[in-house]
Amino acid sequence: MNAEIDYYVVDANDRLIQVSESLRETMGPFVGNSLWECFPRAHEIFERHFSEARESGHELEFKAFYAGAAMRLRLLPAGALLTVYPERLAEVDVRTLGTLTESLRRIEAVLADQASEQLDPRAHGSLRALP
């Protein structure tokens, strides 16, 4: 069984122009709109990485925390277009104080690994979380 890879494509203005079938339910309604308008404050974390990938023309990979989840994003530029492969690594679990504590520990470990894990020599890390 082949699991589909999650991805989405944005244009030069970071407008969502395509989503994978697996992301169609969550991101499909936003096609044609700017990511930054659809996902509040995401530009503060992601926009500089998007720009860097486009300017360098090279694949870029980084980890970030946004919307309650630690994620790894792989960016593949093709001219002004950018294909983004998001992977959720850990999420905040607020069911109980115990699950919250454990999920925060997992997120901290995932983000701390960024310093020691060099997936791509050109990759840069983003350990910044929104206030």
Task: Write up what this structure looks like.
- With 131 residues, the chain is α+β, with helices and mostly antiparallel strands.
- The chain has a single domain, classed as PAS domain (Beta-Lactamase, 2-Layer Sandwich), CATH 3.30.450.20.
- 32% of the residues lie in helices and 27% in strands.
- It has four helices and five strands.
- Strands 2-1-5-4-3 form a five-stranded antiparallel sheet.
- A hairpin with a 2-residue loop joins strand 4 and strand 5.
- The longest helix is centred in the last third of the chain and has 20 residues.
- The radius of gyration is 15 Å and the shape is globular.
Overall pLDDT metric: 82
What is the percentage of strand-forming residues?
25-35%
Q: In one word, what is the shape?
A: globular
Class from helix and strand fractions: alpha+beta
Side-by-side strand order of the widest sheet? 2-1-5-4-3
CATH top level assignment: Alpha Beta
Comma- or semicolon-separated keywords:
131 residues; alpha+beta; Beta-Lactamase; five-stranded antiparallel sheet; disordered C terminus
List the helices and strands and how they pair.
Elements: E1 8-10, E2 16-19, H1 24-27, H2 35-38, H3 43-56, E3 60-66, E4 69-78, E5 81-91, H4 97-116
Antiparallel strand pairs: 1-2, 1-5, 3-4, 4-5
Give the gist of this structure.
With 131 residues, the protein is of the alpha+beta class.
